[in-house]
Structure formats: C-alpha cells, structure tokens
Design brief:
The chain is an alpha+beta fold and 149 residues long. It has 2 domains: 4-85, Rossmann fold, CATH 3.40.50; 102-148, no CATH class. The chain contains 5 helices and 4 strands; from the N terminus they run ββαββαααα. It binds adenosine-5'-triphosphate and magnesium ion. Magnesium ion (MG) binds at residues 46-47, 92.
Length: 149
Amino acid sequence: MAFVEFADVSKIYQMGEVEVAAVRDMSFTIEQGEFVVIVGPSGAGKTTLLNMLGGMDSATSGTIMLDGARVSSFNRKQLTQYRRHDIGFVFQFYNLVQNLTARENVELASQICRDPLDADEVLAAVGLADRVRNFPGQLSGGEQQRVAI
Ligand SMILES: Nc1ncnc2c1ncn2[C@@H]1O[C@H](COP(=O)(O)OP(=O)(O)OP(=O)(O)O)[C@@H](O)[C@H]1O
Ligand SMILES: [Mg+2]
C-alpha cells in the first residue's frame, strides 16, 4: 500500500447558487521517502490539496489515506492529534506569530510537540543564528520561511 493515497477526492465550495470545485476527482499515490513537487497554475487547487492532506480542511468526497490511516474519516480530536504529531507544514504565508521573535515562534511550536529540538540550535541550523531576536516583520520572505520550517 502506498504511504499517501488520494482516491477520487473532491473539494467543492458552495458560493450561494454557484459551486466552485477547488479539486475534482483527484487520485494519486506517494511512496514513503518519495520527494514530490506539486506544480500547477494559480487556482489549480494545490493549497486545497495540501490543506486536506495536512488535516486542516476536509474533502467533500473521496478518501485520503496516510500510513494506513483514513485521514478523511478522522474526527476533530483525531485531526488535532494528526496535525500535532504526524504532519509538518509550511504555510504559503508562513503563519508566524507577528509579535513573537523568531526564537519565540520556534519555542511556541516546541511546547506542543514531542521531543522538541532546541530552538536556538535549529535556527542556527537554517542559518538564522543572528536573527533569533528579530520579529517576522523584520525578516525576509525566505528567512520567515526558514523560521516556519
Ligand atoms: N474558501 C473558498 N471558497 C471558495 N472558493 C475557494 C476557496 N478556497 C479556494 N477556492 C477556489 O478553489 C480553487 C483552488 O484554490 P487553491 O488555493 O487551492 O489554488 P492554488 O493552486 O493553491 O493557487 P495559487 O498558486 O494561486 O496559490 C481556486 O479557484 C479558488 O478560488
Ligand atoms: Mg496556493
């Protein structure tokens, strides 16, 4: 069985009378250890796909499996556990807390995960040792992305 499997997944938004299909009948598999890039035009559904895989959005129909678990059937509590322990996610707009420094942003995340690494060490590992006291608004896009990672 593949590590990740999408089977006939659709995400339909109801906008009054109009239905917007962000993703329609999408099926694919990803093997464990495989490095995958999702490419497509703006509005193609990439963020929608990743939000569903990351447990932040639910599919309208279809099945999403990850490591043998049926993510598309998870309840709210299971989704919270899944997001916290199984998924790493860098958002399109990073989602850093603006009034916390780079170090504090990493420390915040480390408070809710198992076996967290040291915030200063991981920031140094991504080349941000001398920016740990900076706020997100004082960092470049790429630097914010590295804090998010
Ligand atoms: N909450 C929503 N309500 C209605 N339509 C939505 C909603 N979210 C996304 N869409 C629509 O679904 C489609 C897919 O959006 P999505 O954000 O997944 O695209 P994307 O591939 O990530 O685009 P980009 O490259 O611009 O980030 C778009 O047509 C978008 O307008
Ligand atoms: Mg997007």
